[in-house]
Amino acid sequence: MAPEAQLTRRQFVVTTLAAGFALAVQPVSAETITNDTKGLIAGEVSIPTTDGQIPAYRAMPATGKSFPVMLVVQEVLGVHEHIKDVCRRFAKLGHLAVAPEFFARQGDVSKMSDISEILSKVVSKVPDAQVMSDLDATVAWTDKSSKGDIAKLGITGFCWGGRIVWLYAAHNPQLKAGVAWYGRLVGQANALQPKHPIDVAGSLRAPVLGLYGGDDSGIPLDTVEQMRKALKAAGSRSEIIVYPNTPHAFHADYRPSYRKEQAEDGWKRLQGWFKKHGAF
Question: What does the pLDDT look like over 212-231, one tens digit per residue?
C-alpha cells in the first residue's frame, strides 16, 4: 500500500453520513422522489476496511434473510439523500442495498457548494484502488451479516459511480452484473486512475448495461461508440443504451436534469438486466 493510503481511523475526514441533500444541489427539484422505510430496515452502518471504517447507508426488507446484494455507488456529491433513496428502492424490491461513502478519507463533499471545488479538492484525490478495496470490504461485510446472499451480487452507480461500475465488473469475479448510469468511459491514465472503462472492455468478468444520454456534454457520443466497438471486439455480453436528446444525470430526480420517461425506462431495463444475469 502506498504511504499516502496508509491512513489511521483518526485520519478519516468523514465518519458519519450527511443528512438530507448535498449543499451543491440546493434547492432540490419539486420532482424529487422519496421512498419511505415502511417494511424496511434502513439507516447508517459502518463498513470495516483495510485501514479503518467508512460510513455507509444500508436498506433491506425488515423480515427474511439471504437477500440479493446490490452495491450502490454514489455520484460526486457523496452518499446524500438521493443515493439513500435509491437504496430504499432496491430494498423494496427485496434486496440488501448498501452505499458506502467512498470519499470518507478525502473530504466531506456534502458541505461544499461548488461542484468544481468538490472535483478538485476531493474527487480528484480518490484512488481507484481504494474504491475497489472498499467495495470488496462492503461485499465481505454483507456476507458476514448473514442477511446478504453474495451469490446474487449486483452493482449500480451514477456519474462518478457509473465509471466505477465498469471497473468493478473487471475487478470482482463474484459479481453477476452491473448497470452504469452515464459513467465516463475514456480518459488520461494517471497514478490514481491507471485504467478507464475503455481499457477493461476486454476483461469484464460480469456484463454491464450502460445507460447514457445523447446530449451529455461531459460524455461525448464518440466515446460511447468507442466503448461499444471495444465491447463488440471482445465478444462481451455488455450493452449500451443511448437515450436521444437526453442530458447527463437524467436519473437524478432531485435535479433539473431529471428526465422522467428516460429514468423510468432505465430503471425497468436495470431490473430486467439484473434478473437476466442472476442478481435478482
Answer: 999 999 999 999 999 999 99
- Identified catalytic residue from 248, 251, 253, 277: 248
Among 216, 251, 253, 277, which one carries the catalytic annotation?
A: 216
Q: Which three cell numbers stand for residue 200?
A: 477493461
User: Which residue among 95, 128, 159, 253 is the active-site one?
Assistant: 159
Active site residue 87: no
Cβ atoms of 182 and 213 closer than 8 Å: yes
At 113, list the grid cell. Answer: 457548494
What are the percentages of helix, strand and coil residues in the chain, rounded to 5? 35, 20, 40
230 HSE (CA, 13 A, CB side): 17
248: annotated active-site residue: yes
Which position has the grid cell 447514457?
A: 212
Give the SS3 label for residue 81.
Answer: helix
88-98: average pLDDT:
98
Tracing cell 451480487 back to the chain, one arrives at 153
CATH topology of domain 10-276: Rossmann fold (3.40.50)
pLDDT digits (tens, 9 = 90+) for 133-169: 999 999 999 999 989 999 999 999 999 999 999 999 9
Residue extents of the structural domains in the chain: 10-276
Annotated catalytic residue 159: yes
Question: Does the model's pTM come out above 0.90?
Answer: yes
CB 49 within 8 A of CB 142: no
